[in-house]
Design brief:
It is built from 14 helices and 53 strands. The chain has a six-stranded antiparallel sheet. It has a six-stranded parallel sheet with strand order 28-27-26-34-32-31. Helix 3 crosses helix 4 (415-424). It starts with 8 loop residues before the first helix and ends in a 31-residue tail after the last helix. Residues 967-986 are annotated as: Disordered.
């Protein structure tokens, strides 16, 4: 039986009457009629949600064949998308996706052939929808228009139709609209009669007329997908002939008032004379406030409109909106005259988001933007949420991680997001729905030029009153005549609407600077220079010095983590994680299925370490204005970019928590400045303590204290600094501390913790201390840098060999390992290095008895791991597990080793492709690991489980890997850059 949410009790009465009084065929026909004509309505609105007639128009024949004059053959439910109700085509290798594919190797690699077979298609680039369709489709519903609507203004409201709509009432076409950011609203006043009326809507999700760019997050299969349907409010709305059309509120916090622009439309044949009243009332705070009601007379000529400006005083009780106290008001506007009544209630906040020098100000208070990028990840529906409840949950999660800002990459969210962000106290940067690159370009007179002005104008009208709408970008990473176009765009908006601040587009560091932008959302001044020894003394001051406006780091992070295969069952909606399924099976095919969760957790710990260090570097940079991380959550497309500490559902993966993340990402963060993290016990730990503070008020009389403890939690030293008041700022000096290390006699990991007393603001860092000791080779170990004849002889005779294979590896030579993990993912960048995303370490092995380590890469491993060769164990026994195992990109899943042990012949061997040697200089961690491995080899515990033949061992140094990555495409994400040959203006 068809289901309809709007089937009211009266409908059930008729349903049962029909059931008992008609034959089966008549019952079905009558029931369908009831389902498609009954709609819930109140005096001024008819809800059109529920079942609609539906038909796919594959051949674009619906208009010429006048489908609006006949009943469509199929049924679908709205709100929703075609894919959601399994309308469209099955996924094949020939599916014409909306989105760029830069790595075509999937279509050719022999080991992936099974994923290219019908019935077993696994697309690795993004999530796989249940069905796919790009083209025209028709939606149709009959509605009873009540008699008392005669003479009224009637609007058809379609929230989030995707993309182009054309509407017919009975046999008359009403018009066409094309917007990715705002409701499609049609005036049906002259088309709808009372009684039964047929509404037909043709929706076309092709991008041929206005191409915003195939990778734009407003349309691309990389994120929400290019769906066909309507996902928000669908209703007929009736109004009096004279009505309030638009209300825009412009807060003046300094003078405790607001300017309100009210537009009145008069569609009647007579001139209108009436009275307008306005008052504002707070509604979400313990302390309440209400303005006095303001009245003004207004006259509007017939068939005309008029905009007037009214000043609403707020007085001393005014409440302001910010991230700390997001106080909101409802402005109630009423239009009253004989026979005419019109009302509008508008949510807003009294706030001013401005710029002073290189700082953002919220109500004159400096604010640092700690942001994430939202890419329209909605894996259950494939389209953005339109309910406030859904966005409440998202923003609550984002704020729990210490963030206060969200950038919407090349898309604008529905109204519900702005309502929820207002409540949560989050600063939003929606964008024009375009990534005009690799296809369309700006400034060349293409349709995208005017479309971005039209779309951002619609955004300002629909969402401009929301306090959270503080920033606006035209889109993402363009090509074309950028500077000229974007300078004009920024100038247009600065003159038009002062309620927010404007940049050109959000761009990487290689894009040209747009001089007129009020702030820069830009790459180039971000990241970790961990080709050098990790430290926390450097900052980004030199990089941001040329910019005299606020600099917000564009898409920081992008540190990959291994897939979480336990996430796969979550995909119960319109999408399936076929990419995850393929990666999981491929890992199993490479004999490592049992290590999947360990890979996730080990790579996750490194990922968090990287985010911590990059964020802290910005927090200690004076004048840095903020960052937009990519991202807090995973990105499901572009090859599958697992860059978040949360999954695409905004849920934790298990290796960190919001509480842990907030230690280094919060409104107040203790900071540390040190030259390194690895010491010998002949040195002195010298550190500078600093503070980042971005609060609503200064931190008054704050006492900052510190402790140093060992791994057992034993306190080794402590101290505190004199009470001091800290204003908002980055990298504020607190004081210095020293700690002599000569009492540390054993290799140790120490923890330095700094906190602001009597607050929740606390942060910590680990250090490694190694005693100065002799690392000479001890008998009976044979140390060698090659698998030479003597090594083979020692093994054959039952001896022990330590093989330092650094620089000698052939099998695995193609795998490049840095300390930093994979950036974004290796598919999107066609196997650009690094290829490794951290290491899994058998930390419980006695091999590490004198080398404190966890199961994952940590900062003491930098000098050992960074740029070291790895060994490919493709011919080793399938259950062979090394002591130190680099985690390969999940697109290859090669079984790798940095250090392994084995029995060979009668002897035993440890092989390291890291440079571990007795004569290593200025690498205390590498020296200590070598000592620890020697001690292990000289102990009874040295008893490797696996046996290797000398031939398998020798093969590492003789023959290349059997499985090599090969790319089959000439295209590259580098061609997204504005100076590439593809995007040069011709």
């Amino acid at each position: 039986m068809l289901q309809d949410n709007n089937f009211r009790p009266l409908g059930y009465f008729y349903f049962y009457k029909i059931l008992f009084m008609t034959k089966k065929y008549s019952y079905i026909c009558l029931l369908l009629t009831i389902l498609f004509t009954l709609s819930s309505f109140k005096n001024d609105e008819i809800n059109l949600e529920g079942n609609w007639h539906f038909e796919i128009d594959r051949n674009d024949e619906g208009i010429t064949q006048k489908w609006y004059n006949r009943n469509l053959k199929d049924v679908i439910k709205l709100p929703g998308s075609m894919a959601e109700f399994l309308k469209g085509d099955d996924i094949t290798l020939k599916t014409k996706w909306t989105g760029s594919i830069y790595d075509s190797s999937f279509y050719f690699i022999p080991r992936l052939e099974k994923y290219r077979q019908p019935g077993n298609i696994h697309i690795p680039f993004w999530l796989t929808p249940a069905k796919h369709y790009v083209g025209a489709a028709w939606y149709q519903k009959e509605v009873d228009v009540p008699a008392n609507w005669k003479g009224k203004r009637i609007l058809l409201h379609l929230e989030r139709a995707h993309i182009e709509t054309r509407v017919w009432i009975n046999d008359k076409e009403v018009g066409l609209q094309n917007s990715l950011v705002a409701p499609h609203v049609y005036d049906l006043s002259t088309f709808l009669l009372t009684g039964k009326q047929r509404i037909s809507i043709r929706i076309d999700n092709r991008t041929t007329k206005i191409n915003v760019g195939p990778d734009s997050h407003s349309i691309t299969d990389h994120t929400q997908g290019n769906w066909n349907g309507i996902i928000g409010k669908i209703a007929l709305e009736s109004f009096s002939p004279v009505y309030i059309d638009n209300v825009q509120i412009y807060p003046d916090v300094k003078n405790r008032k607001a300017r309100v622009k009210v537009t009145i439309n008069n569609s009647a044949t007579n001139e209108f004379d009436g009275k307008l009243s306005l008052f504002a009332k707070s509604y979400n705070t313990l302390k309440s406030h209400q303005t006095k009601e303001v009245f003004t007379k207004i006259t509007v000529n017939n068939s005309n409109s008029k905009t007037i400006e009214v000043e609403v005083p707020f007085g001393k009780g005014m409440l302001t909106w910010d991230e700390f106290d997001p106080a909101l008001y409802h402005l109630e506007v009423k239009l009253d005259a004989k026979g005419i009544k019109s009302e509008k209630k508008v949510q807003f906040g009294m706030r001013e988001f401005k710029i002073k020098g290189n700082q953002f100000l919220i109500n004159d208070i400096p604010v640092f933007l700690r942001g994430t990028v939202h890419n329209c990840e909605f894996p259950l529906t494939g389209y953005p949420a339109t309910t406030v409840e859904a966005w409440d949950k998202i923003f609550k999660t984002i704020k729990s991680y210490g963030l206060n800002h969200v950038r919407f990459h090349s898309w604008c969210p529905p109204e519900a997001a702005f309502i929820a962000a207002d409540k949560a106290g989050i600063y939003l940067q929606p964008e024009g729905p375009s990534w005009p690159n690799h296809g369309p370009k700006i400034g060349l007179g293409q349709p995208i030029d005017q479309f971005l002005y039209d779309e951002t104008t619609r955004m300002a009208k629909e969402y401009g009153n929301y306090a959270s709408f503080t920033m606006l970008s035209a889109g993402n990473e363009p090509a074309g005549k950028q500077v000229e176009y974007l300078n004009a765009f920024v100038d247009f908006w600065k003159a038009k609407d002062e309620r927010r601040v404007y940049t050109g587009m959000s761009v990487g560091g290689s894009w040209p600077v747009v001089p007129n932008a009020e702030y820069q959302s830009r790459g180039g001044v971000r990241g970790l220079n961990w080709n050098k020894m990790p430290e926390t003394e450097s900052d980004f001051s030199t990089g941001i010095a040329p910019f005299k406006v606020p600099f917000v780091a564009h898409e920081i992070g992008q540190y990959c983590v291994f897939p979480n295969f336990e996430e796969i069952p979550k995909y119960k909606g319109v999408y399936r994680a076929k990419n995850f399924e393929m990666f999981k099976q491929d890992l199993e095919d490479h004999h490592m299925a049992d290590q999947a969760k360990d890979f996730l957790n080990a790579s996750g710990k490194l990922q968090v370490l990287c985010y911590k260090n990059e964020i802290e570097k910005m927090l200690r940079t004076p004048g840095y204005a903020g960052f937009q991380a990519l991202g807090l959550q995973d990105f499901p497309g572009q090859g599958t970019a697992l860059v978040g500490v949360l999954d695409a559902f905004f849920q934790e993966k298990g290796y960190t928590s919001a509480q842990e993340y907030k230690r280094f990402c919060n409104e107040t963060v203790p900071l540390l400045k040190v030259p390194k993290f690895v010491y010998t016990n002949t040195e002195i730990l010298k550190a500078e303590i600093a503070l980042f503070h971005s609060g609503k008020t200064s931190l008054e009389n704050a006492v900052i204290s510190w402790t140093i403890k060992n791994e057992k939690g034993i306190l080794l030293a402590e101290g505190n600094f004199d009470a001091k008041t800290f204003e908002n700022g980055n990298g504020i000096f607190v004081g210095n501390l020293t700690f002599e290390l000569n009492k540390i006699k054993q290799a140790s990991k120490l923890n330095l913790e700094v906190k602001v007393n009597n607050t929740l603001f606390i942060n910590d860092w680990d250090f490694w201390i190694y005693p100065v000791s002799n690392s000479e080779i001890t008998s009976p170990i044979y140390y060698t840098t090659a698998l030479d004849d003597k090594a083979k002889e020692v093994l054959q005779n039952g001896g022990k060999v330590f093989l330092n294979a650094s620089g000698k590896v052939v099998k695995g030579k193609e795998v490049e390992m840095h300390f930093l993990p994979v950036f974004w993912n290796t598919s999107w960048f066609k196997m650009r290095p690094p290829h490794v995303t951290g290491m899994l370490i058998q930390d419980k092995s006695p091999a590490f008895g004198s080398f404190p380590t966890s199961f994952h890469s940590d900062l003491q491993w930098w000098e050992i791991q960074n740029r070291s060769q790895v060994m490919n164990l493709e011919d080793f026994p399938t259950d062979f597990r090394p002591l130190v195992q680099p985690i390969d990109t999940w697109f290859m899943n090669r079984r790798l080793a940095l250090v392994f042990e084995a029995k060979v012949g009668k002897g035993k061997i440890i092989v390291s492709s890291a440079d571990l040697a007795p004569d290593v200089v200025n690498k205390p961690a590498a020296k200590q690991l070598f000592i620890s491995l020697q001690e292990y080899m000289n102990s009874d515990a040295f008893d490797p489980k696996e046996n290797l033949s000398i031939e398998v061992l020798n093969d590492i140094f003789m023959n290349p890997s059997k499985e090599q990555f090969k790319t089959f495409t000439k295209d590259s994400p580098d061609e997204l850059k504005p100076n590439s040959n593809q995007n040069k203006v011709k």
